[in-house]
Amino acid sequence: MAASSVTSEAILFFDHRGISKSMLYADFEAILDGMVGVPEFADKEMRGAYCLVSGQLRVRSLVLFTIDFDEDGMADTTWNVPLRHLAEHAGQGPDMGAGPIRLACRSQCPVAWHQDQMWDPGMKPGANDFIAIRDSIRERGPKMGLEMDDEIEVTPPVIGASAPTIAPETNESAKKADQERVRLARIIKELRLRVQTLENTQSEDAAKVRYVAQQKEEILNAQLEKVMGQFKAIKSQNGALREQNDSLKGQLLSLNQSLEEQSRRSEHQGSEMEVLTEQYKLALEQRLEEERAKMSEQLHALEMDVLTRDDLIGQLRGEISEQKRNKVKDANSGAQKTLEKLEELGLSFIAFHPGAGHISIVADQVASYMDNPIAFAARKCLVTEDHYRAWLAHYESPTCQVPVGADDSPCGKRVIRVEVPNQFKPGVSDCNANRCPNCRNDSAIDNVLRFR
């Protein structure tokens, strides 16, 4: 049977249970234009699938994308993924009944800067997204209004299987061998796509875990430095109070010695001098106790000031940040409107950073990018800003940083450059002990660097 020239476009949406909603591409365009909303998608990021379907209700092209909806169920106005362009230039995918489809997903995206708005299909037994899409198109196609040929096959195709052909008996074995090779080649392609999808998912999860761990480590280090500063301040104040207490003890000892000398010189005054001496000692001890209590109160007050000062500083910083945000918001309101108008006209803002590649910047993120491009690129790479800066210095000049010589200057010998920021380990990736004077020569590294 000749291939059908009738094609239709459909959009399928997925949730945690599978396909939750299906519609024609024209209805999806009405959602993108803001003419209608989808209340059940309110405040969610939805996974969608653009399907180019033949007149036999078989998928020929597939684009897996993500899109955000606000709290009213309206689609993100900045979303601009070219579904038809991606479907036209995508690589090969599995056979869904009409030969290998064109597949665009996160692991296989023909336009690099749209990769963050794509997702990878699940291909586990019993939870295969390709099978779910195939069956949904077959079941819902007539109800959705997809265009179909007059004669349509009823038996659903099997993904990965080739269509049977009638051949003369003399060439039957050769035809079967060719069909088996084609089937095995398609299965290998599907397995490679599955492995690449699993590797990308595992790499992203590991990068997110490392990013969270780095953030926690930086917060704990900052808190430790803060506590150590407070401890040093309190320790210094405690030392000053001890010195003052020692001084008072010395004065008390001096007064006691002076009273003893006066007592020896005026023994003839007898009991009267002894009474005065006892009264003076009691008064002096009482004064010392008052001074000790006063110093203890001062020390406690200082400790409370140290504890409350940080809270006050945090509040003041919050107020300053809020005032700065208000000023920046007022100052940038005109610029933001201009950027939004440019974006409505179809212009995209793209920046390139090593390690992150081409980054698509929406109008709402332009101000954040201009404030700190390095931090913006670091977030895209799922690393902290300090980690990204350390990797960037290594990327621009991959040399050994092991201190050598009397002045502890860096070794300076070339090392193997780490191309991905989240795989770079400061103090390990930029150090090559085998290249230092006190270590043996590593010929394997020489061969790698010579080859590069």
Structure description:
- The chain is of the alpha+beta class and 452 residues long.
- The chain has 9 helices and 12 strands.
- It has helices at 25-32, 83-89, 129-144, 172-265, 271-344, 366-371, 373-380, 385-396, 443-451; strands at residues 7-15, 18-24, 45-54, 59-68, 91-95, 100-104, 123-124, 127-128, 349-353, 357-361, 403-404, 409-410.
- The model is unreliable at 154-158 and 160-170 (pLDDT under 50).
Write a short abstract of this structure.
The chain is α+β, with helices and mostly antiparallel strands and 452 residues long. The chain is 52% helix and 14% strand.
List keywords for this structure.
14% strand, 12 strands, 452 residues, elongated, alpha+beta, six-stranded mixed sheet, two-stranded antiparallel sheet, 52% helix
List the helices and strands and how they pair.
Elements: E1 7-15, E2 18-24, H1 25-32, E3 45-54, E4 59-68, H2 83-89, E5 91-95, E6 100-104, E7 123-124, E8 127-128, H3 129-144, H4 172-265, H5 271-344, E9 349-353, E10 357-361, H6 366-371, H7 373-380, H8 385-396, E11 403-404, E12 409-410, H9 443-451
Parallel strand pairs: 4-6
Antiparallel strand pairs: 1-2, 1-3, 3-4, 5-6, 7-8, 9-10, 11-12
Helix pairs in contact: 4-5, 7-8
Average pLDDT works out at 81
- What overall geometry do the principal axes of the alpha carbons give? elongated
Helix residue percentage: 40-55%
Query: Roughly how many Å is the radius of gyration?
Result: 38 Å
Annotation, overall tally of beta strands: 12
Main sheet: strands, sense, barrel: 6 strands, mixed
- The termini sit apart by 53 Å
From N to C, what is the helix and strand string? EEHEEHEEEEHHHEEHHHEEH
Give the strand order, joined by hyphens, for the main sheet.
2-1-3-4-6-5
